[in-house]
Write the structure tokens for this entry.
Amino acid sequence: MFASRLLQDLKKLLYLKLELTWNLFVGKLTLYKDVFPPALAPLLSFIGIPWKRLYRSHCLSCKASGSGRIKLPSKEDMMEDIKSFYATLEAQGVSKRYTHQMGITQFEYNDWLASQCGCSGTEEWRKEMYLATGVRKRAHPETYRDEWEDHHLVSQVYQDFSLYVSKDEIL
């Protein structure tokens, strides 16, 4: 039984090596939801850019799928999702070079990942603050960190943080 399982895993690794070699040759790596290679999920997964919430969600997603707590779609369904994603990008005129530049859709992706792991999604104040900072950054690239126009959001942050820590720890 163990030898049979090991042989299956070795075949999958060989297939992955061939797939990775070909895909890297043509300049892309096919991953379901930017994490799982359909041929080897959940045995192998790729943790993406270490960007706080995204990185955490990727790690939790890998942990949950590896332990069997969440079930990934079939290989065929993952490939169909990937094809659909690339077709959407192509229809929007987005170059494959910018595949991982999510823009405003990052919140939808982050919330989807969080829901898969049983975690809460992105807080509204965080989304609003991110978008307001983006506008400010484009308008005032040299001083956007120094001059804030979203003080009303800061009070929401304090209110949210107060649910988890005492007021003295926040200030």
In short: The helical segments are 2-25, 52-67, 75-91, 106-116, 124-139, 151-161, 167-170. Residues 2-116 form one domain. The chain has a mean pLDDT of 79. The chain is about 60% helix and 0% strand.
